[in-house]
Specification:
The structure holds two protein chains of two kinds. In chain A, 70% of the residues lie in helices and 0% in strands. Chain A is mainly α. The radius of gyration of chain A is 16 Å and the shape is globular. The chains are: A mainly alpha, B alpha+beta. Chains A and B meet through α2, α3, α5, α6 and α8 of A and α1 and α2 of B.
Chain lengths: 161, 327
């Protein structure tokens, strides 16, 4: 972390490799897939610039995910300023993705917001409950509950019983 | 372990015993998973460059708007507003009233916003009308040195032998009774009277009488023998054959415009002039020469267009508009 803060690109590359899925999941819970892909790099470049502001190196994941959340908010603010928000959900914004993945993601994003980020981080990015807790700032127990309840609702929505 | 507990455990800890339903949904969502290897982190400098590019585009758009506004301001002029005098005994050049200079004085006049004009000694000039890109003068005698940067035909000067029309350029007009001489400094000027017209490029001159075609463009750098022979052929003041011999002998590459212009007028010497022009500056296509020799004037015109002459477009002559170029 110190090396990355001192401008070591290789060290920062390691941070990127380790935390990019958490950032992507955070963004994917809020942005259309294609825009989430692009935004990941912007978030890390912003983080690279501001790394010296990070007091606790152990909090990098939650810090960089917080940057991602702000990035998603900015994205919608800019869109509101310039154009009408599209009526479609992120699921059908990227035609290159498989239809099934889009359908499942759309179903997740139709659940109450509290479940979006935990389920996307878990089911899309493959993060563990503890990693999700570090990314979201929730306790591990809260993540466990959210994942469990969220998944139950998702099954109902997808008609899996 | 009950199914529900297994699901909860696997959801929280992917290293635990897998739950079939969760695994199926993981697989379905796998195409959306982020692959950092497929998206290498770009160089920070590249990102930094994006903003300057946008700034550059904004700056270019502003510059364009500024230039357009500047051009509009430069080339618009209220109808019949007099031109101001920069140096001389008058404040302004009035509309419709002749202005004369004595043997010791001259006037430096600002031509609307598009350039300047010096009225030389012993001259008489009347500013007939002014308006955006259409300024008209009458010149009875004397010398007029004009420099303008504006679309073609912005200035037209009527003289006793015809009209002198600018094509975005600098030129000197001398009027001596019914003889008008035009020396073009840069750009192009058109001389026009009832008998016809001629376009004269920078570096060349032409004379115009009331009762005949304006002379062919003749570069001032041509040899004295060449110039004299051309004049005598046009005026018919000397036997044609020896004069034509001098023209053919003393012509340089730069004089091909004169040769081709004369070939369009001199039927008897046409073939010899065209062949000499082809020796000095052959046309791109051999067919152009054969068609020109067969009497096709359009082929001659195409040949002229191929010559290395000043651009017909007036825009590149902007340097003439710079204040320090005022002479």
């Amino acid at each position: 972390m110190r090396a990355a803060a001192a401008g070591d690109r290789e060290a920062f590359g390691e941070l990127y490799g380790r935390h990019s899925r958490a950032v992507h999941g955070t963004l994917l819970a809020r942005l259309p897939p294609a825009e989430a892909d692009d935004a990941v790099q912007e978030v890390f470049l912003q983080a690279m610039k501001r790394l010296s502001e990070l007091r606790d190196p152990g909090a990098f994941r939650s810090w960089v995910c917080a940057i991602a959340r702000r990035r998603a908010v900015d994205h919608f603010r800019r869109r509101v300023d310039h154009e009408e928000l599209p009526s479609d959900t992120p699921s059908n914004a990227n035609t290159g993705l498989r239809a099934e993945a889009q359908q499942v993601l759309a179903a997740i994003l139709e659940l109450p917001p509290a479940y979006h980020e935990p389920l996307v981080l878990r089911l899309v990015e493959g993060l563990s409950g503890r990693e999700i807790a570090a990314a979201t700032g929730l306790t591990a127990d809260s993540v466990r509950v959210n994942l469990h309840r969220g998944f139950r609702l998702l099954r109902q929505k997808l008609g899996i019983e | 372990m009950r199914d529900d507990e297994r699901t909860e455990e696997y959801l929280f800890d992917p290293a635990a015993a897998p739950d079939e339903e969760v695994v199926r949904l993981e697989a379905a969502l796998a195409p959306l998973r982020y692959d950092s290897d497929a998206h290498p982190l770009p160089d920070r400098r590249r990102l930094a460059r994006r903003r300057p590019r946008m700034l550059l585009a904004a700056a270019a758009a502003m510059l364009l708007a500024f230039v357009a506004a500047g051009a509009l301001w430069l080339w618009t002029w209220p109808s019949d507003r007099p031109w101001s005098v920069v140096a001389g005994p008058l404040d302004a050049l009035p509309i419709g009233r002749p202005v004369s200079t004595g043997s010791d004085d001259s006037l430096l006049v600002r031509v609307a916003r598009i350039g300047w004009m010096r009225i030389g000694r012993d001259s008489e000039v009347t500013l007939l009308s002014t308006r955006s890109n259409q300024h008209r003068l009458v010149m009875q005698e004397g010398t007029l040195h004009v420099s303008v940067w504006a679309p073609p035909r912005s200035i037209a000067i009527r003289t006793p032998s015809g009209e002198v029309i600018d094509f975005g350029c600098e030129f000197i007009v001398r009027v001596d009774r019914d003889l008008t001489t035009v020396d073009v400094v840069s750009g192009w000027v058109r001389l026009d009277n009832d008998s016809g017209e001629v376009l004269v490029p920078g570096g060349a001159s032409s004379v115009m009488r009331r009762d005949g075609l304006p002379s062919v463009p003749l570069f001032r750098s041509a040899t004295p023998g060449f110039k004299s022979a051309i004049r005598s052929i046009e005026e018919g003041s000397q036997p044609r054959v020896p004069a034509l011999g001098i023209v053919l002998r003393e012509a340089r590459r730069r004089d091909v415009l004169t040769l081709l212009s004369l070939a369009g007028r001199d039927v008897t010497g046409r073939d010899a002039l065209l062949l000499r022009a082809a020796e000095l500056m052959p046309p791109r296509s051999p067919q152009t020469l054969s068609r020109a020799r067969a009497g096709d004037d359009e082929a001659v015109a195409r040949w002229v267009d191929e010559l290395p002459l000043p651009p017909r477009n007036w825009v590149p002559n902007w340097r003439d508009r710079l204040p320090f170029r005022v002479r």
